[in-house]
């Protein structure tokens, strides 16, 4: 039996970051994946970053993770979202060449001498006195471990739906991990089912691009990681179109074969990335819904139509696609589908992402009830760091809400749990003025270095960047990176607002008995309160600020918005 400090199960965004993070903290790591060739695959959309998500990517990078550099290696379209708004809520996002992204992740993992890649299916955890002892593979081999990170994505009990078709799988044409899921349920862990989906892929050569609104890449030379020094790849444009009334009629007429509306899918889907049939059902009065046509690679004809995720039958998908302007002759090269999978209630975890019920077991990614590559990667870093800490008796690594979006996400998960896949939003962070995407390195890298998370190359880079920051604060510009000059200027501009924000949060915590109104009309007048928060508060009907803070799923940022609104009314 081979023995490792840490075994990571799963080679997606959470698993690869967990393996690399554990290795950076000195652990010997086995990364187990059903297919080594698929490690680092972008299962759904070909993009990294976005609103809230871009902050996570920058924070993962500040902890010396893989994602940002892989995104830079593969970026074929750059777009800074919310550019017209304040820097605190701007979101860096790139379209990535799928093949190049996967190759970059695999190349980065290969540079870690302490990581061993093992192809196989993890079928069971072997426990001794309530602690993880080893991982059993389907071929009968055993891998010894002091700690295990489960990063199984959508593969645990995965089931694929398309119209009336059903298939076992965590991803199209890839088998699920049923035996491991059955064991976890037998251990009486708190588990449930969630659902996600993906749109049909189109052949870009059959699209009428001249009929569409082009969306060019940003021309300014920003990157996801300050470590990236290589030139940009050739940039491709995206395009925008919309569904039509005819599209909506096709969808409504096709709902008879919908697994979502037929009751076949038990799990809740992502609120912020609903299927097109769900959009049409919930927002039937709208004339149309935007579709962003996103290239999947420099030399790849496949196009990702962002906005029409669906599990409708293939014939309905053909019809709905061809009812859209510019797509009248478009050919579908892979039909969309939904996948339902097991997740563990994240309230069973602590802030290290360790499972309280089984010593040495950590969980990361969609298994914890989240959705998105960026959320998964961020959890992977924390779970991997803490698995290594357990193996080597090191200090645990937990991120406070005031330090990073990673801390906001994990705090929300372990304290509030989920009823639908969790997506990061800037509105979830009450300290968002301080948690800008551009200052992630300044916020996190020095702290991470004290915990032994950074490689020697990153440490040297950090020393150089710290010297630049000191010089910039003294008014020196020569030899200072442009992004640092902007960062220091923004620090100065935000300083008075940050001081006021800290004072307001302190006062809010003292005002727990402040009365609030929880009727829908009043809640909709509260600035900064999302529809999700309004729905949760309306159901619970809290009478005071303190009661609102204890409603499941209501974030501290939402409580802060309620408090500010109540003060203005009085």
TrEMBL record:
The biological processes this protein is annotated with in GO are: tRNA methylation; tRNA wobble uridine modification
Q: Does the keyword Transferase apply?
A: no
**Family annotation (SMART domains):** GIDA_assoc_3 (SM01228)
One family from Pfam that matches here is SAM_GIDA_C
Which residues are involved in binding NAD(+)? 269-283
Which superkingdom, per the lineage? Bacteria
Its main subcellular localisation, reduced to a broad class, is cytoplasm
Q: Which UniProt keywords apply?
A: Cytoplasm, FAD, Flavoprotein, NAD, tRNA processing
| Domain tRNA uridine 5-carboxymethylaminomethyl modification enzyme C-terminal subdomain, first and last residues per copy | 492-564
Instruction: Write one Gene Ontology MF term.
Output: flavin adenine dinucleotide binding
Any one cellular component term from GO for this entry? Answer: cytosol
* Named cofactor requirement(s): FAD
Q: Which InterPro entries match?
A: FAD/NAD-bd_sf, MnmG, MnmG-rel, MnmG-rel_CS, MnmG_C, MnmG_C_subdom, MnmG_C_subdom_sf, MnmG_N
Task: Region Disordered: list its residue ranges.
Answer: 193-226
Residues annotated as binding FAD are 10-15
Q: Where in the cell is it found?
A: Cytoplasm
Q: Which HAMAP family match?
A: MnmG_GidA
Question: What does the record give as the function of this protein?
Answer: NAD-binding protein involved in the addition of a carboxymethylaminomethyl (cmnm) group at the wobble position (U34) of certain tRNAs, forming tRNA-cmnm(5)s(2)U34.
For this chain, the family text in UniProt reads: Belongs to the MnmG family.
Quaternary structure (record) = Homodimer. Heterotetramer of two MnmE and two MnmG subunits.
Protein name listed in UniProt? tRNA uridine 5-carboxymethylaminomethyl modification enzyme MnmG
Q: Which organism is it from?
A: Sphingomonas endophytica
């Amino acid at each position: 039996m081979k023995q490792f400090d840490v075994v990571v199960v799963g080679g997606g965004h959470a698993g690869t970051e967990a393996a690399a993070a554990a290795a950076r903290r000195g652990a010997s790591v086995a990364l187990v994946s059903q297919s080594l060739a698929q490690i680092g695959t972008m299962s759904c959309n070909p993009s990294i970053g976005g609103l809230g998500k871009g902050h996570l990517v920058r924070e993962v990078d500040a902890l010396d993770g893989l994602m940002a550099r892989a995104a830079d290696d593969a970026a074929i379209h750059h777009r800074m979202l919310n550019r017209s708004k304040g820097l605190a809520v701007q979101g860096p996002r790139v379209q990535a060449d799928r093949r190049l992204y996967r190759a970059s992740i695999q190349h980065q993992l290969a540079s870690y001498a302490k990581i061993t890649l093992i192809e196989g299916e993890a079928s069971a955890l072997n426990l001794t006195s309530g602690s993880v002892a080893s991982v059993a593979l389907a071929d009968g081999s055993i891998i010894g471990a002091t700690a295990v990170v489960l990063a199984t994505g959508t593969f645990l009990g995965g089931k694929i739906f398309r119209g009336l078709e059903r298939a076992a799988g965590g991803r199209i044409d890839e088998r699920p991990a049923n035996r491991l899921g059955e064991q976890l349920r037998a251990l009486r862990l708190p588990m449930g089912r969630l659902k996600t989906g993906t749109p049909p892929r189109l052949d870009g050569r059959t699209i009428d691009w001249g009929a569409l609104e082009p969306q060019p890449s940003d021309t300014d030379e920003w990157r996801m990681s300050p470590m990236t020094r290589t030139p940009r790849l050739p940039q491709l444009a995206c395009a925008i179109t919309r569904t039509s009334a005819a599209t909506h009629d096709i969808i409504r007429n096709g709902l008879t074969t919908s697994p979502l509306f037929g009751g076949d899918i038990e799990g809740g889907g992502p609120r912020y990335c609903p299927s097109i049939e769900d959009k049409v059902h919930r927002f039937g009065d709208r004339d149309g819904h935007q579709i962003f046509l996103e290239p999947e690679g420099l030399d790849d004809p496949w196009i990702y139509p962002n906005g029409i995720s669906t599990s409708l039958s293939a014939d309905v998908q053909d019809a709905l696609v061809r009812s859209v302007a510019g797509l009248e002759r478009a050919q579908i090269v892979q039909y969309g589908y939904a996948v339902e999978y097991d997740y563990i209630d994240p309230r069973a975890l602590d802030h290290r992402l360790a499972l309280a019920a089984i010593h040495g077991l950590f969980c990361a990614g969609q298994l914890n009830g989240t959705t998105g590559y960026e959320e998964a990667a961020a959890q992977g870093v924390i779970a991997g760091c803490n698995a290594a800490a357990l193996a080597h008796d090191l200090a645990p690594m937990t991120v406070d809400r005031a330090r990073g979006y990673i801390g906001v996400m994990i705090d929300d998960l372990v304290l509030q749990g989920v009823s639908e896949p969790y997506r990061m939003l800037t509105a979830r962070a009450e300290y968002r003025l301080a948690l800008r995407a551009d200052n992630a390195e300044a916020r996190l890298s020095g702290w991470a270095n004290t915990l032994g998370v950074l490689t020697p190359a990153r440490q040297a880079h950090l020393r150089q960047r710290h010297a630049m920051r000191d010089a910039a604060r003294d008014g020196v510009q020569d030899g200072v990176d442009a992004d640092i000059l902007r960062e220091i200027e923004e620090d100065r501009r935000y300083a008075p607002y940050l001081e006021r924000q800290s004072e307001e949060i302190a006062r809010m915590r003292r005002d727990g008995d402040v009365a609030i109104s929880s009727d829908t009309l009043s809640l909709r007048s509260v600035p900064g309160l999302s529809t999700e928060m309004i729905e949760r508060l309306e159901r619970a009907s809290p009478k005071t600020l303190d009661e609102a803070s204890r409603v499941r799923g209501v974030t501290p940022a939402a409580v802060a918005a309620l408090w500010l609104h109540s003060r203005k009314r009085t």
